[in-house]
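Q: Trace token order:
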Amino acid sequence: MSNIDLINIEEVVNEALSCEISSGSRKRVSVDGKKIFCYISKQLTEKTLKEIGEHINLTHATILYHIRTFENLMRYDQKLRDATKFCMLVCNNMLGNETLKFRDNVELYWKTLSFKQQETLSRLAKRYYINNTKINEYEKL
């Protein structure tokens, strides 16, 4: 893994949150962006905390602090969870780890769908699950 990975992750987070995480800004959106960047960088790369910190001009202790507070905030902040999920999916796709699956797209955009669209997708998913479960049970025999 090269430094290009960190650059790619930084670009994704900056674009998703409309902020500049390498700036010294203490605005909430920038701090949340730094937390997301630190978390994703630690999860998806083999970089040390020191290397991650050097990329955005922070110490390894600050990176560790961001990761710990991020995990705590994730329990309560829905916007942070949504932004992280989006950034994680895009970064996984960009780094070649995983592509966006249909299920991931549905989860990302579920709240933007109309009630009728949600019902239709739920019905189709249930039918798909029932059909595949029957096939899998038949294969076990």
In short: The chain has a mean pLDDT of 82.
